[in-house]
Amino acid sequence: MATKRGTLIPNERRRERPPEALKAAKEIWTQKYPNIRLRSLTAVYNCVGLPFASRRTCIDPEHLKTILREDDYRPLSGEHEVEIGDLVLYRSNKDEYSHIAVVVKKEPKVINASFEITVVSQWGADGEYIHLIDEVPDSYGTIKEFWTGG
């Protein structure tokens, strides 16, 4: 895989996990987040491989900065600018990205002048889920950025 500017991005297709392990992971996550919806129960790609490699491979999140820059993505100033298809990036600390999701739905919440944003993302080797932006494993962090394609 390479960026638009030609930089090669290391990637690797994972082996599939046993069905019993995938089902157990699904049970754990749906108990913790009852509103999430399973989209695909597979482990061969990761969250970065979902939007940037068409669900075919794993790409380490350390390459997100390069991909965003060289594929002409730009940051959005907040959730009010987000549209379907935009990206939500998570940080577990201020320096490193830990997770990425794709926006699939955005609904205004008039009561508190905000939005309810639904995304799809691959949770490690535990499957792909449709969920609200704040319903992610704790290890992904809570610092969110919004990006759109160039």
Computed structural class: alpha+beta
SS summary, helix count: 3
Regarding quaternary structure, what we see is single chain
Helix share of residues? 10-25%
Backbone CA Rg:
15 Å
What global shape is seen? Answer: globular
Low-pLDDT segments: none
**Number of DSSP E strands:** 7
Distance between the termini: 19 Å
Largest sheet: 7 strands, antiparallel
Q: What is the chain-wise order of helices and strands? A: HEHHEEEEEE
The average pLDDT value, as a whole number, equals: 95
Looking across the biggest beta sheet, what order are the strands in?
Answer: 1-6-5-4-3-7-2
Descriptive notes:
With 150 residues, the chain is of the alpha+beta class. 17% of the residues lie in helices and 29% in strands. It has helices at 19-32, 49-52, 64-70; strands at residues 37-40, 74-75, 87-91, 97-109, 114-122, 128-132, 143-148. Strands 1-6-5-4-3-7-2 form a 7-stranded antiparallel beta sheet, with helices on one face. It is globular. The mean pLDDT is 95.
